[in-house]
Design goal:
CATH superfamily of one domain: Sporulation related repeat
Strand order of the largest sheet: 2-3-1-4
Distance between the termini: 71 Å
Number of strands: 4
Number of helices: 4
CATH architecture of one domain: 2-Layer Sandwich
Largest sheet: 4 strands, antiparallel
Shape: elongated
Helix content: 40-55%
Order of helices and strands: HHEHEEHE
CATH topology of one domain: Alpha-Beta Plaits
Length: 122
């Protein structure tokens, strides 16, 4: 009796695991999912994706000074000047997540004040 109960329990567990594993292989693509994926791809092409840290936003001379100072303090880090009329921006880094950008933001705040994390393409 005890052996039969163990065998029955084992078979039940095995069947449950098999059904669960099999059901996870099924995929359903609805028109709504396809529409959302297309919308996301279009957004990424237009605006990019990821984050940067913006050190400065203002006139060209000051922007160039900020960038030069940043490159001296952090020589192996990516930085760029961006011109969006009428202001110049100094942006650094290229982060996939906001959390990664926030970690570097805390390091840079020791040398720069008023810096912010912004989405790429802005």
């Amino acid at each position: 009796m005890n052996l039969n109960l163990r065998t029955l329990t084992f078979m039940f567990v095995l069947l449950t695991i098999s059904c669960t594993t099999h059901s996870q292989k099924k995929t359903t693509k609805t028109k709504e999912i396809e529409r959302l994926m297309t919308k996301k791809r279009t957004f990424n092409k237009e605006y990019g994706f990821g984050y940067r840290i913006q050190l400065y936003n203002g006139n060209e001379q000051q922007a160039r000074k900020f960038r030069a100072y940043f490159e001296v303090e952090y020589p192996n880090k990516f930085s760029k000047l961006v011109y969006v009329a009428p202001e110049w921006k100094v942006q650094v880094g290229s982060y996939k997540t906001k959390l990664e950008a926030d970690k570097d933001l805390m390091k840079y705040q020791e040398k720069f004040s008023g810096i912010i994390v912004i989405p790429m393409g802005k």
